[in-house]
């Protein structure tokens, strides 16, 4: 890796300045993860309850801190709200205008060198990223935020390519287990949690998408001061799947059907007669007040 600062104190590498902070392009990710020996180690770690692994220190802390600070600058109409019996979270919309640091992050994980790293680790050839970030992008979980145990959708909604991998990076400093929001990976056959991953700052997780990849964040976020749980997610696809090419799109499947309460039914009825723009405005106001 090239030196960022010369002996004379002059900048030597290509870099960008964001929010008064300098980020060298050759320091965006940790090159140690791209050596043959490290790739071999990661490939051997990619295991049960279904193939997954997590990385610590893969990306520049400066880049991640800048990404964290950009959440508040995204326009309210670029957020999509999920508020129902199975989930409470907020996600950026496809094709929305992200901050500079977030765009650099997603450009990096969609680059040829990074996609090739994923292919070498997983053994999946022909991986295809999704620059539109449909279902991916930036995610926020407020107080009470959760995502019930589920199996992800099987195809990209537009291209019909088969979903193969999901890659998530967490952006939460000093996050404690008592704050909730941990990602749980379950054995679908045994019906119980096998791996619990705290959403700590700079931690990334990769896991395989199959009909048995049961996962979720069932423990609601309960961080002090209304603190938000933040992350960045991306899906990777291929033309074909070992389980067989599906002829139709199958949406997210939640593990257990939950019966709506009387209050839940009343809220659903109100949503039916309320203009979407009013609902979006109210949700955005509530999100701002929680911060």
Q: Which value, in Å, is the CA radius of gyration?
A: 20 Å
Q: Given this structure, which CATH class is correct? A: Mainly Beta
Overall 3D shape: globular
Q: Main β-sheet: number of strands, strand sense, barrel status?
A: 13 strands, antiparallel
Q: Would you identify the regions where 5 or more consecutive residues have pLDDT less than 50?
A: 1-9, 257-261, 264-273
Give an overview of the whole structure.
The protein has 291 residues and is of the alpha+beta class. The protein has a single domain (31-258), classed as Jelly Rolls, CATH 2.60.120. 23% of the residues lie in helices and 27% in strands. The protein has helices at residues 36-45, 61-70, 100-109, 112-122, 262-273, 276-290; strands at residues 15-18, 21-24, 52-56, 79-83, 87-92, 128-129, 137-141, 146-151, 162-170, 183-187, 192-197, 203-208, 213-217, 229-238, 253-254. The strands form two sheets. Strands 3, 4, 5, 6, 7, 8, 9, 10, 11, 12, 13, 14 and 15 form a 13-stranded antiparallel β-sheet that branches. Strands 1-2 form a two-stranded antiparallel ribbon. The longest helix has 15 residues, at 276-290. The two termini are 39 Å apart.
Features:
Jelly Rolls, two-stranded antiparallel ribbon, 23% helix, 15 strands, disordered N terminus, globular, alpha+beta, 13-stranded antiparallel sheet
Please outline what is shown here.
This protein has 291 residues and is of the alpha+beta class. The chain has six helices and 15 strands. It has one domain: q2cbj1_9rhob like domain (Jelly Rolls), CATH 2.60.120.620.
